[in-house]
Amino acid sequence: MQRRSLLLATGPALLATALPAWAAPPAAKDLPVLQVWKDPSCGCCKDWVSYLQRDGFQVQLFETGNTAVRKRLGLPDKYASCHTALIGGYVVEGHVNAREIRRLLAEKPKAIGLSVPGMPVGSPGMDGAVYGGRKDPYDVVLVLPDGSGQVYQSYFRG
Predict the structure, then answer these.
(1) Dmax over Cα atoms in the chain, in whole Å?
(2) Whole-angstrom distance, CA of residue 84 vs CA of residue 16
(3) Whole-angstrom Cα distance, residue 87 to residue 78?
C-alpha cells in the first residue's frame, strides 16, 4: 500500500495517536473555569476572551482592571499585559494562546503561570482585521516561582 493510501485509510485514528494530549482540544466540561480580569473598555481583551470561548474555555469575566489582581497573584510587573487570568491555580497574563494554556494544565509545571508580555500584534486578540494580517514574533513565557522566566513557546520566529 502506498503511503498516501495508508494515510487516507487510517485517517483520524493515526492523527489522534500522533498528537500529544494537550494538543487535542478537551471538552469545555473538562477544563477549569478561566477567571479573567480586564478593563471594561479594552477591545483586545474582549477579543482574547471570545477566542478562548470559541476554543472551549468557560470564562468568568471581571471588568475591574487587572493591576491589583496581578500583584495579588504574585506575577512580577515585567510580565504585565492588559488582562490577567487564573485557571487551575496558574496565572495567565496577556494574549496567551489556548494551546499553551492546555499544555500548561496538562504538564503541571512548578510555575506561577504563563505570560505574553505587552500586546504583540498577531497574538490571539491582537490579530483582527485592523492589523492587516501583520504578525510580530513573540514568546509565551513560563514564569517560575522565583519570578524568573523561560520561553515556553515562540511564535512567528524564523
Answers:
(1) 61
(2) 32
(3) 21
Q: Which residue has the higher pLDDT, 156 or 17?
A: 156
Looking at residue 60, the DSSP 8-state letter turns out to be: E
Cα gap 75→131, rounded to integer Å: 29
The answer to whether 119 and 81 are in contact (CB under 8 A) is yes
- The amino acid that residue 105 corresponds to is L
Between the two ends of the chain, the Cα-to-Cα distance in Å is 36
Taking only the tens place, the pLDDT of each residue in 8-32 is 344 444 444 455 554 555 555 689 9
| Alpha-carbon gap, residue 84 to 69, rounded angstroms | 7
C-alpha cell at 94: 496577556
* H or E element, residue 143: strand 138-143
Report CA dihedral (71, 123, 89, 43) to the nearest 10 degrees: 60
Name the pTM for this structure: 0.82
